[in-house]
Amino acid sequence: MSQIDLSGMWTLRLDSSVLGKVSVPCSIPGDCHSALLAANLIPDPYYGQNELEVQFLNQEDFILERNIELSPEQLQQGSPYLYFESIDTVTEVLVNGKPVTQTNNMFHAHVIDLGCTLQSGTNTIRIHFHAAEKAAAQRAQQLPYPIPHSVYPVQSLHRNQIRKVQCHSGWDWGPCLMVSGLYGACYIDFASPGRIDNLSIRTIPAADNTWDIPVTLRYTIPGPGTTQGSETTGASGPKTASFSITMNLRLKDGEGKTVLKQTTEHRLHGPGNHQLEAILSIKNPKLWWPSGYGEQHLYTLEAAVWSSEKSGTESMTGQGDTVQETVQKTASPGTAIQQRATKRIGFRDLKVITEDDEIGRSMTFQVNGKAIWAKGANWIPLDSLPSRQTTDRYRNLLHSMVQANMNMVRVWGGGQYERDVFYDLCDELGILVWQDMMFSCSTYPADPEFLETVRREIRFQVLRLKEHPSIALWCGNNENVGALTWYPETRANRDRYIIDYDRLNEGIVGKTIRELDPDRTWWPSSPSAGPNDFSDNWHSDGRGDMHYWSVWHEGKPFEAYYDVTPRFCSEFGYQSFPSEETVASYCPEDQRNLTSPVMEHHQKNPRGNSIIIENFSRYFRFPEGFANMLYLSQVQQALAIQTAVEYWRSRRPICMGALYWQLNDCWPVASWSSIEYSGKWKLLHYAARRFFAPIALVSFVKDQSLQVHLINDTDRSISGTVTLAFINFAGKTVQENTLPIHKAGEGSHKVWELDLKRLPFPVNSAFFRGLLHIDEGPSASCVRPPQEPDKSLETVCFLVPPKQCNLEPAHIRSRLSVVKNYQGEAELLLQLNTDRPAFFVSVDIPGMKGHWEDNLFTLLPGTTRAIRFMSEASGTEEGGSLPSMEYVQAHLRIQHLRESYH
C-alpha cells in the first residue's frame, strides 16, 4: 500500500483580535505557537516577561489546513483512513468540507475511516482548533459540583477538565502556554482488505531458561457499514465476506540474525476487529538488564501480513463478530506482503517486591532475580513548545542520566506520555521507566464522557508502550491522593471526591492497565502506601513510595533527611538558579538582580527565591555579587540532594531507591532541575555522578557523630585500604589513620564512626577526608569514563556548617591543553592545583556544548586535578569540536567557596 505522509508544511490561520487575520506556514509535527514565533508575530515567550504578552493566545481558535493530490489509482488501493497520533486538543476535523470527527483528548490516536470522502485530484484537510481554555471552563460550568485543582502564578484554569498536557496551563517551574498542534505521525493509508491496528507481545519466563512469546496482532477490516468519519469499524447486514490472511513472524537478535520464525494462516469471517494469535518459544535468550547491572540485549519481532482474495461470503449476526481459524503453514513463495509491524522487545523478569516486615512494607525493584537500588530523577516535558522536542535533545538528556550513574527515570504525571524515541533510548541505555499516567495534583471528573475518553487514552498508551523492557511500573497519577485533602471543597465533602477518584483511578485506569498488561506492576498513585491505602506518604516512610518535601516546602534543615528512611523516595528536591550563561539567555543585563521583575518572573515557585537566599545563612557566608549568588545556589542544591541520597543509600536494604525532583527544565528558569534548559549540567548533576556511583565512599555527620560508609551496588567484593584524615584549612593533616577493607560485598558497610567530641581540636578548624584505595580498580562507571579507570574513591565532609569555618585564601592555578581521546578526537584537558584547600570547585566555559568529566570537587595542595571536557558531539559522526584556545582561555571561569564571599 502507498501511505500518504501528512507531515511537512501546513497553513495556520486565525482571526485574532490582537494579531488580526493571520495566514502563516506551520511545520507538522509541531505547534501553532512555534509557527507564530517563526513568523515574528509574537515575541519569544521565554525571554524577559514575554510569557505574559502571549496569554491572549489561550483564548484564540486556530485552523490548520493542507491540500493533497490523489490519483484515481491511489483511490483504488483500498478503504481509506486518516491517522493522527496526537491532536492537541479540542478540534473538529473536516475533509473536503465534510466533518469526519471531533477530538478532545491529545493522549490517544485517532483512526478515522474516510469512506467515500476522498476524491481524485485536490483534497483539503482542515482542522479547527477550539481554545482549550474556553472548552475547559465551559465543561467545568456544566458539571453539578466543582472539580478543584492546584493553581500557579500564571495559570489557565480548569486544566483538569481537558485531556491535554497538564503543565501547559502553568506550574511552579513552567510557563503557561496553552499550545495546540499535531504531534507524532499523521498520514492517509488504505486498508486492503484490512489494516494492522496493534501488535501485542508478551515475554513470559518458563522453566529451564525458556521464554514463551505470545503474540497478538489486531487486524481491522472495514465493512459495508463503515461510514465517513467513523472511528470504529464493524460489519452490518446479513452477508459478510470471508478472508484468508497469512501472518509471518520473525524474531531477530540485536545483530539482525533471525533466531525464530513461524507462519500461520487465519481465516477471518466478516469485517470488524480481529485478533490473529500465535505463540513462539525461545531457549536461553540474552537478557536485558538495567544500566550498571548488565547489558541491554534487544530483539526485534517482525510481523508480516498478507491476504489472498476473499474466499466467499458467509451469513453473520451481530456487529463486528470475529471467527478465527489458525493452521501452521509455510509461506507461499512469491506471495506479496501487504503490511508489516515491528516491535523491539527485551527478555527480563521484572518484579516490584512489596513484602511486610518489622518496619512496614518493602518496595524493591527486582530484575532477573537481582534487587536493584533505583537511582535517578523525575522527568518533565522536554520543552513547553512541542516543536522543540527534538531527538538530539532527548538523546543528550538520557545519555546524561547514564553518565551520572542513573538507572531509573520517572515520567511525571503532569506532563506527557513521552515520544517513541524516549522509550527506545531508555531500552538501549538501560534506564528503567516509572511511568505515571497523566493526572497530577488535582481532583478529576468522573462523568461518563470523561471516563470513556480516559479509557481510550489508557488503552492506546498501554498498547503502544508495554513491549518496552525499560518500563518497570505503571502508576495511576501524581499526588492525587493528597489532592483529596488540599481544597476546601474536598475537605468539606471528602466522600464525594473519594468516590470520583476511585471511579477514575481504579475503575478505569487501573482496571484497563491490569487487563492489557497483566505482567507489569500497577501502582495506584505516587506517593502511595499501596492499593486501597490513603496514607500520608509525604511524612510516613514505612511503606510504599514517599514524596519527602519537608526540607524545601517546610524549611527544615538538610539534616532532616536523616529523620526519615523511605522504602522508596520517588520525589524530593531543592532549587537552584541556573548558570550565568542561561540567565543571559532570558534576562537583560540591567535586570540581573534576584529581585528584579524578570528574575522573579523566571521563578515560578512563589517562595522559591526567598527559600534559597534564607538557606544561605544556615550553611554559608553570604555571597557577594550576582554571579556568586548563582554559583552558591547550585552548591547548596547539590549539598541538599547529596545529603539525602548518601544517607538513604547507607540505609540499604530498608531504602531501595531515590529519584530526585527534577532532571530537566522545559524553559530557562530557576528550578529543582540538575540539567538546565540548554542541556548544561548544573553542579548537582556532577554531584549525582559521584553519589549515585555503583561503588561509593560516603561520609556525613549525624547526631554529632561522623559516619563513613562504603556503598557497593555491584556483585564484586571490594578489598583495599581506607585513609581517614582530618585536614586543617591550611592543608595540613592534623590526624590520620588507616583501616583495611576486606571483601565488602554488595550492600552498605559502615567503615568507621567517631564521636566528634573525642577530637583533640575544634571541629570548625578542620574537615574530614576519606580516601579508599581499592586493590583492584572499581568498574569505570564509579567516577571516571571507561578509558580512565580510577582505583581511588574520595569523600570530603565539613564537620560543622561551612560558615563556621575560617577558610584560608586559595590560589588556584590552571593549565589548558588539547589532547586526543580514545576515539582520536580532540578534547580539552584542564589541569588544576592550589596552595590551600579549595572547596566546591566549579569549572565552566560558557558557550561550549558538553560537560566536564568531573566538577564540584575539593582541590587539595600537593595534588593536580586533571579533567577533560566531554563535547556534546564527541563520539558522533560530527566528532568533537573545540573553539579556539584564545576563546577558551578568555572565558574559563573557576569558582570556589571562599571566593564567593571574598
From TrEMBL:
Pfam families: Glyco_hydro_2, Glyco_hydro_2_C, Glyco_hydro_2_N2, Ig_mannosidase, Mannosidase_ig. GO terms for biological process: carbohydrate metabolic process; glycoprotein catabolic process. Residues 364-480 form the Glycoside hydrolase family 2 catalytic domain. Its EC number is 3.2.1.25. Residues 23-183 form the Beta-mannosidase-like galactose-binding domain. It is found in: Secreted. Residues 705-759 form the Mannosidase Ig/CBM-like domain. Residues 826-880 form the Beta-mannosidase Ig-fold domain. It catalyses: Hydrolysis of terminal, non-reducing beta-D-mannose residues in beta-D-mannosides. It is an enzyme of class 3 (hydrolase). Residues 239-310 form the Glycoside hydrolase family 2 immunoglobulin-like beta-sandwich domain. InterPro entries: Beta-gal/glucu_dom_sf (IPR036156), Beta-mannosidase-like_N2 (IPR054593), Beta-mannosidase_GH2 (IPR050887), Beta-mannosidase_Ig (IPR041625), Galactose-bd-like_sf (IPR008979), GH (IPR017853), Glyco_hydro_2_cat (IPR006103), Ig-like_fold (IPR013783). Pathway: Glycan metabolism; N-glycan degradation. Keywords: Disulfide bond, Glycoprotein, Glycosidase, Hydrolase, Secreted, Signal. GO terms for cellular component: extracellular region. It comes from the Bacteria. One of its GO terms (molecular function) is beta-mannosidase activity. The keyword Transferase does not apply. Homodimer. Belongs to the glycosyl hydrolase 2 family. Beta-mannosidase B subfamily. Exoglycosidase that cleaves the single beta-linked mannose residue from the non-reducing end of all N-linked glycoprotein oligosaccharides. This is Beta-mannosidase.
